[in-house]
Design brief:
The chain is an alpha/beta fold. The protein is built from 16 helices and 24 strands. It has an eight-stranded parallel β-barrel, surrounded by four helices. Strands 5-6-7-8-9 form a five-stranded antiparallel beta sheet, covered by helices on one side. The chain has a four-stranded mixed beta sheet with strand order 2-1-13-12, with helices on one face. α4 runs parallel beside α6 and α8 runs parallel beside α10. The radius of gyration is 27 Å and the shape is globular.
């Protein structure tokens, strides 16, 4: 009797196996993921898939290697994939939570996998290291790969598997105008000045809605470009393998906000036909001297020998070649991964006041035997600007490179070729920014001097400075945009008692052929509508 009962149970189990297999197969079934390379379908024996637990998109190694023209080697015994392209060597091993990039260890969210003889690699890692741009559309489960020619897709960050795991590729905005129509706004993230608000910390939906509202307001005002601060304090508003997440997203440096803010901002900006310039503070390490709240991979923690404390603020020493190269690598990470229209630097080179202790650096890194420290400092910044320009153009020549230096290069009393001004601080003598050389050498595409004084401010008159800068760019390929200061409206400084000051400045710009646009500092000050400025600007730009 017991034998018969056991045989019946065994028979029932055997009969259930096909149904069980069908059930499991159905549970695992999902619409296939399609791949397109520069708009053309890509054939693959194994389709991409998503690892649910870590939400990482895996792509066949062959597809990526062929699209980039890279050499690929697979060691079956070591279960290791190696990719070679140019000077980059990537090595990934099955079940290892890190990869080797030119002998440096880089963490991985998901390791390389060997599925039925097909090697699958994590999308973000390969795209970051080798420059492949990737987009994802949830509705059609489509991956778009781009080797440099942007592919039109319209995903939202919520649609992207892994959030940080893909780079959104969107149609580029119209090119920078040459008829004086660039109308830009600086959007500061440091101290949460313009975006995002402190009340949105860790709230993806709120941060995105705040940015959408900001863009809507700026576009309604007539603006067509934004300059967004993506590196406020040697950190990032995007997933980076080189620097930590910015604390201005969550309140804690190094904490993942759960999405890619930069991908979202670029997509939303381009959707409106506006330009997106990624604004970097090059040499600022931290806004104060406190280090206890800095992430473990922040430059202050990783390379304390690069850091100089000046007036209780931390700077990355521009005199150290390795430090300069590291900053360039960090900027290039954004250039390679995102469809930005421009790389924008402010005037954060050497601090304009206080003591900057770099005597030892001057002795150690002066292979050119430059006689004075001032000239040596200027040479350090010159090398940085030149090398960054070359790096950008070698990868994406269409990306504009611009700098917004302090508004006075040199006073005429010090240099007869300087401006007729009596500024207490100058770009050349105090920040060691030799902008004239950058312009003459063509090391940038545009210059946006911060001319933050009025038409009636005697020590540094607006019209005299605009005329001086126009003379500097005349006959070159460097465009001239003017930086304006609406934040001064309503202050006691001469000339800022009416919003018409800004309008008069714009009218003066229109008389100077070299002036091809304006950028306003900053978004929050425009939104405050000081002295009725919004109505005045809207009227001016709608003429």
């Amino acid at each position: 009797m017991k034998v018969r009962k056991w045989l019946m149970l065994l028979l029932m189990f055997v009969l259930c196996i096909p149904a069980l297999g069908t059930s499991v197969q159905a549970a695992q079934a999902a619409p296939a993921i399609s791949i397109f390379l520069d708009g053309q379908p890509v054939r693959s024996d194994v389709a991409p898939y998503i690892i649910p637990k870590v939400n990482v998109t895996m792509v066949p190694l062959r597809v990526i290697s062929e699209s980039l023209g890279a050499e690929v080697y697979w060691d079956q015994n070591l279960q290791t994939a190696t990719i070679l392209k140019g000077d980059t060597v990537l090595s990934m091993t099955v079940n290892q939570a890190h990869a080797l990039v030119n002998d440096s260890t880089v963490p991985l969210d998901a390791s390389v996998q060997n599925k039925q003889g097909r090697v699958m690699v994590p999308l973000r890692f390969v795209s970051e290291q080798l420059g492949l741009q990737v987009g994802w559309t949830q509705e059609t489960r489509t991956i778009t790969l781009s080797t440099g020619s942007p592919v039109a897709v319209t995903p939202t960050p919520q649609d992207i598997p892994g959030g940080n795991d893909s780079t959104v590729v969107v149609p580029p905005a119209p090119p920078v105008s040459t008829n004086g129509s660039l109308r830009g706004v600086w959007i500061s993230t440091v101290y949460n000045l313009d975006w995002p608000s402190t009340g949105s910390y860790g709230n993806q939906a709120k941060q995105q809605q705040e940015y959408i509202q900001l863009l809507d307001e700026l576009q309604a005002l007539g603006m067509n470009a934004v300059f967004v601060q993506v590196r406020p304090s040697a950190d990032a508003l995007y997933p980076s393998s080189l620097v930590p997440w910015s604390k201005y997203l969550t309140g804690t440096q190094g904490k993942n906000p759960g999405y890619d803010p930069l991908a979202f901002m670029v997509a939303e900006t381009h959707r409106r036909g506006m330009q997106f310039h990624a604004w970097f503070n090059p040499f600022r390490a931290n806004v104060d001297a406190k280090t206890d709240q800095l992430a473990a991979n922040h430059v202050v923690k990783k390379h304390p020998e690069w850091i100089v404390n000046s007036s209780n603020k931390l700077y990355i020493n521009p005199g150290i070649p390795q430090a300069r190269q590291q900053i360039i690598a960090e900027i290039m990470e954004v250039v390679q991964r995102y469809d930005i229209d421009g790389v924008h630097l402010d005037d954060y080179f050497y601090p304009s006041n206080g003591t900057f202790n770099d005597d030892a650096t001057f002795k150690s890194y002066n292979s050119k035997k430059i006689a004075t420290k001032a000239d040596w400092r200027r040479d350090n910044i010159n090398q940085f600007v030149q090398q960054l320009h070359q790096s950008i153009k070698s990868v994406k020549p269409q990306v504009q490179f611009g700098i917004s230096p302090f508004g006075v290069w040199r006073n005429i009393a010090v240099d007869p070729t300087g401006s007729d001004t009596k500024a207490g601080v100058t770009a050349y003598d105090h920040m060691y920014a030799d902008v004239r050389t950058w312009i003459k050498q063509g090391w940038m595409d545009y210059v946006t001097p911060q001319i933050y004084w009025s038409l009636s401010f005697a020590p540094a008159r607006y019209d005299k400075l605009v005329t001086w800068w126009a003379n500097e760019v005349r006959g070159t390929n460097v465009k001239l945009f003017i930086g304006h200061s609406p934040y001064k409206l309503g202050t006691a400084e001469a000339g800022w008692q009416s919003s018409q000051e800004i309008i008069q400045q714009l009218n003066f710009n229109a008389t100077i052929p070299e002036v091809q646009g304006s950028v306003f500092f900053s978004a929050k000050d425009l939104r405050k509508n000081p002295l009725g400025l919004l109505q005045a600007l809207s009227s001016y730009y709608s003429r």
